[in-house]
């Protein structure tokens, strides 16, 4: 209300104490990377809090001063529904843990069923190790739990199992953007939100630049808690360069006017300003 606005001059005064640090990081990242999204709580009357989704887009004013355009959306109803669903899942999990039939389900399975599960797992491992993508998975501390053959090979390992318990500091596949990559992976696990089809330009161990399409997916335990992250990298350099060489084809396929920067040094496209809904 107006009286609260008059008595509080800092945005952080309105935030829930548990969310203030994340909002500060959101603002810093929005200034740094140009955009961002976060969820947080605002404290109102009688210490009652409401959930909001905030999106930010960096822009420059007439004086060339960096500023952020923010849009907030009330998501209290959605968060309350999520909370009720989580409580229900916990209750069902606790109930399941008390039932011997579920707790000792393996004792009730036939040898044929267990063999089928083992064969399925072996087949999945064969598939992962024979696709061209680089695949790895880590725990919440970014310690490697496994990878496929291609990722092991690019890091000079003969066996994918050799990567278990290692960290990024022990590897050599990417060095120039390591801090940025780790920050992205931390954000996916912290927000519990997957990232798909992210395009990044990286330097490979042999010093060459390559375009990768990246997917980052949080991993969960049986209770729905985030316990790690699965990441895939696909080299799309050939597709990327063919797009840059054929800008006319792109313009014909897009309804909204787009300004393309296709200079040999830019390696980027310039799109119209983002809009939020």
UniProtKB/TrEMBL annotation:
Pfam family, one: PAS_3
InterPro entries: PAS, PAS-assoc_C, PAS-like_dom_sf, PAS_4, PAS_fold_3
Domain PAC positions: 192-248
Occurrences of domain PAS (ranges): 1-34
Xref: NCBIfam families: sensory_box
Annotated protein name in UniProt: PAC domain-containing protein
Organism: marine sediment metagenome
């Amino acid at each position: 209300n107006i009286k609260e606005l008059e008595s509080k001059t800092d945005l952080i005064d309105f935030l829930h104490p548990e969310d203030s640090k994340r909002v500060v990081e959101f603002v810093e990242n929005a200034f740094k990377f140009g955009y961002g999204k976060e969820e947080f709580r605002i404290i109102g009357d009688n210490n009652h809090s409401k959930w909001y989704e905030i999106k930010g887009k960096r822009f420059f004013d007439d004086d060339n001063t960096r500023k952020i355009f923010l849009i907030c959306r009330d998501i209290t109803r959605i968060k309350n529904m999520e909370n009720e669903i989580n409580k229900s899942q916990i209750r069902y999990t606790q109930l399941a843990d008390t039932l011997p039939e579920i707790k000792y389900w393996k004792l009730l399975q036939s040898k044929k069923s267990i063999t089928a599960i083992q064969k399925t797992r072996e087949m999945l491992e064969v598939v992962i190790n024979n696709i061209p993508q680089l695949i790895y998975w880590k725990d919440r501390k970014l310690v490697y739990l496994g990878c496929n053959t291609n990722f092991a090979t690019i890091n000079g390992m003969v066996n994918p199992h050799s990567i278990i318990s290692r960290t990024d500091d022990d590897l050599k596949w990417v060095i120039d953007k390591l801090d940025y990559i780790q920050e992205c992976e931390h954000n996916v696990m912290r927000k519990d939100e997957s990232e798909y089809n992210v395009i990044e330009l990286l330097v490979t161990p042999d010093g060459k630049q390559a375009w990768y399409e990246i997917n980052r997916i949080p991993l969960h335990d049986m209770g729905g808690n985030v316990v790690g992250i699965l990441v895939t990298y696909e080299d799309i350099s050939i597709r990327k360069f063919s797009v840059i060489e054929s800008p006319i084809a792109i313009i014909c396929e897009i309804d909204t006017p787009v300004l393309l920067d296709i200079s040999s040094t830019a390696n980027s496209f310039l799109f119209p300003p983002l809009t939020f809904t």
